[in-house]
Write a structure and sequence with these properties.
Elements: E1 14-16, E2 19-21, E3 27-31, E4 38-43, H1 47-65, H2 69-85, H3 87-98, H4 102-123, E5 129-137, E6 146-156, E7 159-163, H5 169-182, E8 186-190, H6 197-209, E9 216-218, H7 225-232, E10 238-242, H8 245-256, E11 261-265, E12 271-274, H9 280-295, E13 307-311, H10 315-327, H11 347-362, E14 366-369, E15 385-388, E16 405-411, H12 414-421, E17 429-433, H13 437-444, E18 451-454, E19 472-473, H14 478-484, E20 486-494
Parallel strand pairs: 7-8, 7-10, 8-9, 10-11, 12-13, 12-17, 13-16, 15-16, 17-18
Antiparallel strand pairs: 1-2, 3-4, 5-6, 6-20, 11-19, 14-15
């Protein structure tokens, strides 16, 4: 693609070394999940093109790493401004390629991405040196004795391969690229194949923001080949990945062959534990939080509370409340402001979710709401689905579905609740709802989960984010993101 205004065109190029690169293998279609129409055509990367992107990032890395924190902060701040300045161009494309409702796209996709760039503009100015107290050291065959001083300094890792998820493509990429650049790294991004177009648009915006050519590159592809080439390339020092646990395991195996650093944000099977002492306000909060599985991007959220574990005395009351909530939601076009539940990202994902629902029915669970395909002419829709009377060993209660499906399970006491909550391979985000917050706090300590919300599904932007068990390796978010994209170097001297 050679146009200076790529958003006006249907065919995009790779962004490599500060220029658009026409793809050698041509393009593949990016489809609007609501209309099934082609939004645009993304470039199909070859291993050679991925290698060119890595070479460009490697060439830019030394110079970028030696810029001052103030210079890096200025670029990231300007990037935040440019994203919002171009919102009239970006938001419609982002909505069309993701299928997210217009409300989610306008309020939580682009503004959140801009805030992440602002956050790490501030982060670039954080001290990167930890002074250590001088220590007297006796003479040894290594060196004479004396007073030895030292510091621990965070240094850039080098070239970071950022492989992102389809649910929040620009937000997720901003959460990787911003701390990576703030620490002096350079980046090769490989967005999810389903919706990479807005990620490609970030290339010229970074250039306008003052980022040196080659410090940010984007390659795309319809299948796993581009990501595999990026992970395997010897010029990549670190891989940051958000996506499924199955793919994460393959990336970790490949990265381990050359001891690449990895940051893995993988799948989740969030449990919302509703304790028997939950009063009216807490119950309403719990139902609203669990209902977000349906109303927030159709459940395509790794942190979603897709399992609701309810103490026996409140079980039917909570199931009835969730039924009313689900039945009140409008399923339809994501550009209609009355719509709460839009489509899933693809026909394959819709079919996958429907297979989970059919499997739950076959295993004897009760489908309280949903379970049938909405009567819409086009689009990859699954209606809000509530499955009750499931058992912890059912597939639908153990595996990540990534769709608008909630599974309700009863429990008798806290020990059983903890056993059920911890009984999957995942441990990304759980929730506890109860009127006694001290009791909820104590229960949170027993959950093998990287994140726990108490009486809320809200997030805190400065907390470390990541998972236990098969939900990932490492933490990002806030200042922890700066640690994730840096290596510690000890510097020692004799006084």
């Amino acid at each position: 693609m050679t146009s200076a205004t790529p958003a006006a065109a249907t065919a995009y190029g790779h962004w490599i070394g500060g220029t658009w690169r026409a793809p050698e293998k041509g393009h593949y279609p990016v489809v609007n999940p609501a209309t099934e129409e082609v939004v645009g055509e993304a470039p199909e990367a070859t291993p050679a093109e991925v290698a060119d992107a890595v070479t460009a990032a490697r060439a830019a890395q030394d110079g970028w790493s030696r810029t001052t924190p103030l210079q890096r902060a200025a670029v990231l701040d300007r990037m935040a401004e440019l994203i919002l300045e171009h919102k009239e161009e970006i938001v419609p494309l982002l909505q069309a390629e993701t299928g997210a409702t217009l409300r989610v796209t306008s309020a939580m996709q682009l503004p959140t991405a801009a805030e992440r760039f602002r956050c790490y503009a501030r982060g670039a100015l954080e001290p990167d040196t930890v002074p250590l107290a001088p220590r007297p050291v006796a003479a040894s065959p290594l060196a004479p004795g004396g007073l030895v001083g030292a510091v621990a300094v965070r240094r850039p890792v080098g070239v970071v391969g950022c492989i992102t998820s389809y649910n929040f493509p620009v937000v997720n990429l901003a959460g990787k690229v911003a701390p990576a650049l703030a620490m002096g790294n350079t980046v090769v991004a490989k967005p999810a194949p389903q919706d990479p177009l807005c990620c490609l648009l970030l290339g010229p915006l970074f250039q306008e923001a003052g980022l040196p050519d080659g410090a940010f590159n984007v390659v795309t592809g319809s299948g796993p080949a581009a990501g595999e080439a990026l992970v395997a390339h010897p010029g990549v020092d670190m891989v940051s990945f958000t996506g499924s646990t199955a793919v994460g395991k393959k990336i970790a195996e490949a990265a381990g062959r050359s001891m690449k650093r990895t940051l893995m944000e993988l799948g989740g099977k969030g449990a919302a534990i509703v304790l028997g002492d939950a009063d009216g306000a807490v119950l309403r909060s719990a139902i609203g939080a669990v209902g977000s599985v349906w109303s927030f991007h159709s459940g395509q959220i790794c942190t979603a509370p897709t399992r609701v574990l309810v103490q026996r005395a409140l079980y039917e009351r909570v199931v009835a409340g969730l039924q009313r909530y689900a039945e009140s939601l409008t399923v339809g076009s994501p550009v209609d402001n009355s719509t709460a539940v839009g489509p899933l990202i693809s026909a394959d994902q819709r079919d996958r979710v429907e297979a989970y629902i059919a499997g739950a029915r076959a295993q004897g669970a009760r489908i309280v709401v949903g379970g049938t395909r909405p009567d819409l002419r086009r689009g990859f829709y699954v209606g809000p689905t509530l499955i009750a009377d499931a058992t912890p060993d059912m597939t639908v209660a153990r595996e990540e579905i990534f769709g608008p499906v909630v599974v309700a399970l009863p429990f008798y006491d806290e020990d059983e609740a903890v056993h059920i909550a911890n009984g999957t391979p995942y441990g990304l985000h759980d929730y506890v709802f109860g009127s006694d917050t001290a009791r909820a706090w104590a229960l949170a300590a027993r959950l093998r989960s990287g994140n726990v919300g108490i009486n809320t599904a809200q997030r805190h932007p400065e907390t470390p984010f990541g998972g236990f068990k098969e939900s990932g390796i490492g933490r990002d978010g806030g200042s922890f993101g700066l640690h994730a994209y840096s290596e510690l170097q000890s510097v020692v001297w004799s006084s």
